């Protein structure tokens, strides 16, 4: 089954060209099936790039998935055409009365700010509180994972001495956990962040479990025991060239930036980077949709209760 998105959305053409099964609204409306309703709160500056990345992995499922793209009203992206935002995005106040099977909150390049200093923090708090009663399972990515752990459980973030930047090996702590089922004992994932959360703080919260971590990159996947809240501290959704683009962007700005670790062959930026996380990304996103959302969300979506 395909992912259901408007045919005018840039991701439709991108994914179609990759031979990924996407379906436009007209065709989907002729099928007698309830699609999963997934909202994506896109906090990334380059929203079209983030859409392509996330929708690519949400398409790897036998389920029909209906996407609602959401942006903040308290801060408008300066890196995405306003015409694109007006056409494809909703504000939170436009969806607050709806219920969703799943919600994805993306990362954002604001981790060196205190949470309360972020321009849209009050709005994000409202959305995260709303998600407890209007969303069955919420997936928080990178900075959003830190924001979610802080908002829901008071877990702090810590500034790193240098940016955690590269592709790192991770281990699965519980091979029977639904979210990590099918992952290799050791798998890879990209990280790009200036802050971290720590195991000792998470372990104080009985409701949380650490499903995956890395000796070098630290805690990676955290989930509540009912999988209603998922926190991933890295960027499984990244494309092959995303870290490379970030590296050259910062170099051109004259910023001090190290070559991403374990990314370019022989640490040579002139070579095509190795994408060692694609399979793991497909597994984690598919597991979230299937086990954390589809297998447990009420068929009558209005029956979703507080988490």
Pick out the low-confidence regions.
none
Name the beta content range.
25-35%
The helix/strand class is alpha/beta
Give the strand tally: 12
CATH topology: Rossmann fold
Q: Biggest sheet: strands, sense, closure?
A: 12 strands, mixed
Gyration radius over CA: 18 Å
- What number is the mean pLDDT? 92
Q: Do you know the CATH architecture?
A: 3-Layer(aba) Sandwich
Provide the number of structural domains.
1
CATH class group:
Alpha Beta
Please estimate the helix content. Answer: 25-40%
Distance between the termini: 29 Å
Query: What sequence of helices (H) and strands (E) makes up the elements?
Result: EHEHEHEHEHEHEHEEHEEEHH
Mass-distribution shape: globular
Q: Count helical runs.
A: 10
**Quaternary:** single chain
Q: Can you say what the CATH homologous superfamily is?
A: Class I glutamine amidotransferase (GATase) domain
Subcellular location: Cytoplasm
InterPro entries: Class_I_gatase-like, HST_MetA, MetA_family
Catalytic activity: L-homoserine + acetyl-CoA = O-acetyl-L-homoserine + CoA
Function: Transfers an acetyl group from acetyl-CoA to L-homoserine, forming acetyl-L-homoserine.
């Amino acid at each position: 089954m395909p992912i259901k998105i408007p045919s005018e959305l840039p991701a439709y053409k991108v994914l179609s060209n990759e031979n990924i099964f996407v379906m436009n609204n007209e065709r989907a409306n002729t099928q007698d099936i309830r699609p999963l309703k997934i909202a994506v709160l896109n906090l990334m500056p380059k929203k079209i790039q983030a859409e392509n990345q996330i929708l690519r992995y949400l398409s790897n499922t036998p389920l029909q998935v209906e996407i609602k793209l959401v942006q903040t009203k308290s801060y408008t992206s300066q890196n995405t055409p306003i015409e694109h935002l007006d056409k494809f995005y909703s504000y939170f106040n436009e969806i607050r009365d709806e219920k969703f099977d799943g919600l994805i909150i993306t990362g954002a390049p604001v981790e060196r700010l205190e949470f309360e200093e972020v321009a849209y923090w009050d709005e994000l708090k409202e959305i995260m509180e709303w998600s407890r009663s209007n969303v069955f399972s919420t997936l928080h990515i990178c900075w959003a994972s830190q924001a979610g752990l802080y908002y829901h459980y008071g877990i702090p973030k810590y500034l790193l001495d240098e940016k955690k930047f590269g592709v790192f090996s991770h281990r699965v702590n519980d091979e029977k956990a639904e979210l990590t089922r099918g992952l290799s004992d050791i798998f890879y994932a990209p990280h790009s962040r200036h802050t971290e959360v720590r195991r000792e703080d998470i372990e104080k919260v009985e409701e949380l479990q650490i499903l995956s971590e890395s000796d070098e990159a630290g805690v990676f996947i955290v989930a509540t025991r009912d999988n209603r809240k998922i926190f991933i501290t890295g960027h499984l959704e990244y494309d092959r060239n995303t870290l490379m683009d970030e590296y050259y962007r910062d170099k051109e700005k004259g910023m001090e930036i190290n070559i991403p670790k374990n990314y370019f062959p022989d640490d040579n930026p002139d070579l095509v980077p190795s994408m060692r996380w694609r399979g793991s990304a497909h597994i984690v996103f598919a597991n979230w949709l299937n086990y954390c959302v589809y297998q447990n969300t009420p068929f009558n979506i209005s029956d979703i209760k507080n988490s």
